[in-house]
Write a sequence for this structure.
């Protein structure tokens, strides 16, 4: 059974700096990985799919990379509105599994 | 624009049933794979079920298999989730979600979410 492990659990970064979030898969998933941002009381928002393709309307401050088992989401020039929980998701073989999430705090 | 508007949540006793609705606008349901995803209070996201373009193929997470049924009504452009034999661990916010495109697997549009509470 595929497992997605996200790290760190919580990340605290100052505005203007960059943040890198990690997602590691327990088996090779190619580039079948998406990233979502979720704010309290709101549905998730798709940021990245296919490991690095930015979803419509997503600022280019958000970038994804990786393949196989190791993936990253990098947010440059952090803004206060980026404070949220970020989830990775794999959709290979219809598994649609999510990571446990990384909470990003803007200092 | 694409919009998914959910209804039908509430409080139900263990063993009870509930049906959730997800009305789509701005696109045709039958042209996209659709899913239900749930999120227990304070927890992460859990994929629950998928329905194909024609509505003939469905998939379910092991945690809901045999108890939940996903369906769609093309005449009203509405997605449904029939939930039976509900258990306290089914308590969650349920989201309907649309795939970006056929087989991409990522969800680019989500309903607002509806809370289902299973409690006596």
């Amino acid at each position: 059974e595929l497992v997605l492990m996200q790290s760190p659990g919580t990340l605290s970064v100052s505005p203007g700096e960059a943040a890198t979030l990690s997602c590691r898969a327990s088996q090779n998933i190619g580039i079948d990985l998406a990233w979502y941002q979720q704010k309290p009381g709101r549905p998730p928002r798709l940021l990245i799919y296919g490991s690095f393709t930015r979803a419509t309307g997503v600022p280019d401050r958000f970038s994804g990379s990786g393949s196989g088992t190791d993936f990253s989401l990098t947010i440059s020039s952090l803004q206060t509105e980026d404070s949220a929980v970020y989830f990775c998701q794999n959709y290979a073989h219809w598994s649609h599994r999510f990571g446990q999430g990384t909470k990003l705090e803007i200092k | 624009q694409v919009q998914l508007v959910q209804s039908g949540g509430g409080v139900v006793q263990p063993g009870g049933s509930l049906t959730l609705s997800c009305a789509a606008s701005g696109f045709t349901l039958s042209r996209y794979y659709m899913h239900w995803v749930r999120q227990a209070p304070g927890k992460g996201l859990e994929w629950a079920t998928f329905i194909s373009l024609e509505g003939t193929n469905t998939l379910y997470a092991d945690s809901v298999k045999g108890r939940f049924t996903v369906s769609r009504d093309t005449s009203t452009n509405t997605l449904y989730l029939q939930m039976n034999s509900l258990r306290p661990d089914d308590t969650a916010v349920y989201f309907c979600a649309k795939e970006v495109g056929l087989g991409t697997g990522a969800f680019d549009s989500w309903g607002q979410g509806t809370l289902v509470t299973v409690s006596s």
User: Anything to note?
Assistant: Chain B touches chain A through 20 residues (CB under 8 Å). Chain B has a mean pLDDT of 95. Residues 18 and 83 of chain B are 5 Å apart (CA to CA).
